[in-house]
Amino acid sequence: MRLAVAEARRFPDLASTVGRTARDLSTDLGVRLLGELTQSDELRSLPALAPERLTTTARFFLDLVAVPMLLRALFEVDLKTLDEEIDTHVARSVAFFLAACRHGSVS
To answer: Which of 18, 34, 48, 75 could bond 4 through an S-S bridge, CB–CB 3.0 to 4.6 Å?
Structure first.
């Protein structure tokens, strides 16, 4: 990822391909994982986790929870700083995400 970012000006097509591929693969993984989580009765009833909305919901989840930490990791020199913040970030953003899912606001 760092290499693709660093060389984006020299190889814009390659950087775009890497970015799209990473986004697509992470979305596919997110859909699969959220699909497995929706096997519980409580989560299955949430409109945002309906099968037809799962791709959009997974992308929102990744954009809210994973991408901010990934971007920070790409640019952070001292990853210990990031390590100290991950648990708090995940707890807060997952709670926010689930609240949005309960209110039908995610997808």
So the answer is: 18
Please report, in tens digits, the pLDDT of each residue of the chain (107 residues total): 778 888 889 998 988 898 899 999 999 999 998 888 888 777 778 888 888 899 999 999 999 999 999 888 888 778 888 898 999 999 999 999 988 888 865 54
Residues 18, 83: Cα–Cα separation, whole Å: 26
